[in-house]
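Mods, move this if it's the wrong board.
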Amino acid sequence: MRHYKYGRAWIHALFFCKIGTLALLTGACLSPEKQEREVSYETIAGNKEITADYDLPQILESGELIAVTLSGPDTYYEYREKAMGLQYELAERFATRIGASLRIEVVKDTAELIRRIENNDADLIAVELDVSPYGEVLQGCGSYSQNGKEKRRSWAVARGADELAAALDEWYQPELKKAVQEEEQRRFLPQFSVRRKPRAPFLSRSQGIISPYDAHFKRHGGAIGWDWRLMAAQCYQESAFDPNAVSWAGAQGLMQIMPSTAQHLNLPMEQIYHPEKNIQAAARYLRELEYKFSDIQPRTERMWFALAAYNGGAGHIQDARTLARQAGKNANRWDEVKHFVLRLSNPGYYNRKEVRFGYMRGSETYQYVESIRQRWNEYRRVAKPERVPQKAKGERKKKFR
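Not the wrong board. Structure tokens:
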């Protein structure tokens, strides 16, 4: 339950009024712990007259709109650490319109959506839903679905939240939904997904030179025990060797590092386009991701899982392993798990209770790893492996301890 649901000032006033009444009745003999139990938030929220009164003014007072939704390509998912999905995007725009921040929470099924509203744990159901069977609890508003000529309000708020419902109805326009859909689709078109100036996959095939950054791949790939040519293949997949590449999601530089990941790795934003700094940070991140799959042996298998996590997120890849394991497959072999990565785009799989992280763009992650493997094999035929210099080994202990 959220403690600020009815406005902090109002709850505090009721809280102290309740304590004062108890003190008069008991002679102030209750311990502080006993007093706190007697006036718990659950007791306050149990009053039906109070819970029915939470509406748009209280949302604006708290500064936060809480929306619940389901996992899916048209509702909510995460892509490269960025929240995505049509229903999420619409809810975000409505929250901005009313001057509140949005907190989105993903649940497993319709029953949980309704329970969250009924218990005052959420303000808005951001899913296209047939509201009619739940008329005692919900009222339809905002976005609508259309079946032929029939239009049906398909978002929902609590019965009695009339100001919020009216604001949603006034704000929502069908053309807005269409515009958001088109924008999402455009983001994933190759010509729009990453702004970059591609270079050739080889700087000099005859001399075995892959890129101008080979020395950095050798140095920092060697520091984490990776074949430098594998890191080069990943880099080409990410940015085509353009150090100034940037994606619509905000990934930047040669290895397309997200700002939040850069912060986590202590890479200053003013250095994110620096070729060696970007590659060094990516190496550290690969090592960190590899550790998340430390139960996988041999290490050559573990690397594919780390690369998949770099693109699709470690949580989704662990979900795919869970599905593979349940299907009787070897969850430590990428060639068996990758098929379940693809299936995480299917609601029959991503809605399963054991799947913690929901929908993912599985085909992209699948193709990402396959493309890197193919290019790595090509690079290995042309470029020589590299021994890690003794100096680099010593520095590895200092930098990556």
